[in-house]
Every structure is written in C-alpha cells, then in structure tokens.
Amino acid sequence: MLFLVIDTVKLEFVGPEVAIAQMKMLQQTFATYQELKDQGKIKFAYAFADSPGGMIVLDVASNEELQQVLFLLPSMPLVQRAVRPLTEIKSVESIVTELQTIVSSMPNPEKKGQS
Questions:
Q1: Per the structure, how many domains does the chain have?
Q2: pLDDT digit string (tens) for the chain, length 115 residues
Q3: Contact 25/76 with Cβ under 8 angstroms?
Q4: Residues 37/81, Cβ–Cβ less than 8 Å
Q5: Is residue 31 part of a domain?
Q6: Region for residue 21 given its phi and psi (left: phi exceeds 0; alpha: psi -120 to 50; beta: otherwise)
Q7: Residue at 83 is within a domain
Q8: How far is CA 47 from CA 21, 36, 69, in A?
Q9: Is there a contact between 74 and 25 (Cβ–Cβ < 8 Å)?
C-alpha cells in the first residue's frame, strides 16, 4: 500500500534549549528515514524548496504499519502532517473504461424523441 505523507514544519519561536532539542529530533528523523529507505519502505523523499517541510512516499503492508511508522518518527510533534493513500494510474484508467462502458449502455433520451 502506497501513501503520500506531507510534512509541514510548524514554525514557532522557541528558546535555545528547545531549538536544540528540536534539531536533535529532526536529525533522528532523518536517520529513521534512512533506515526506512534501506528497508524499502520509503520509495521517494523530497524536501520543499520554498518552505520548511517535505514529502515521502511510504510503501507499507497495512494501515497499522503506516500508523506505527508515522507515530515512531521523532519529528511528530514538530510537523503538521497530511497522509493520502495512492493508487496507480492504471487503476484509475480501468475505472474510466468501466464507466464509459456503463454510460454507453444507458438509454439515450435524445434518440427517443427522434423516432
């Protein structure tokens, strides 16, 4: 199962001790990303060029595994996170083909009036 995970860093002014702790959490997060990448669970990872944050594509076996991975990331308290399930375009194409078949088999009200 593929999931797009978008993290936006919460920008808050904090004291030096908190800022150092947050930097350590981010370093731990990057180390965790590398472990997940080595395990084949992260397919893609990108940082945003225009703002603090980034996105990863996770390949996990279940929703439970997704939750486990996300909750164990050290950056959890530092980011606002959005998660979107992904599907391949082939899946969407087959649905469109099915819908076209259904629509073409429906009676056409314009043709009724022409008889």
A1: 1
A2: 999 999 988 777 778 887 788 788 888 888 999 999 999 999 999 999 998 889 999 999 999 999 999 988 878 777 899 999 998 877 777 788 888 888 888 887 776 656 5
A3: no
A4: no
A5: yes
A6: alpha
A7: yes
A8: 21, 16, 19
A9: yes
Structure tokens at 98: 């099915």
Q: Model-level pTM?
A: 0.71
Task: Strand 79-86: give its sheet, edge to edge.
Answer: 42-47, 53-59, 2-9, 79-86
Map the chain to HEC letters: CEEEEEEEECCCCCCHHHHHHHHHHHHHHHHHHHHHHHCCCEEEEEECCCCCEEEEEEECCCHHHHHHHHHHCCCHHHEEEEEEEECCHHHHHHHHHHHHHHHHHCCCHHHHHHC
CATH number for position 9:
3.30.70.1060
95 within a domain of the structure (yes/no): no
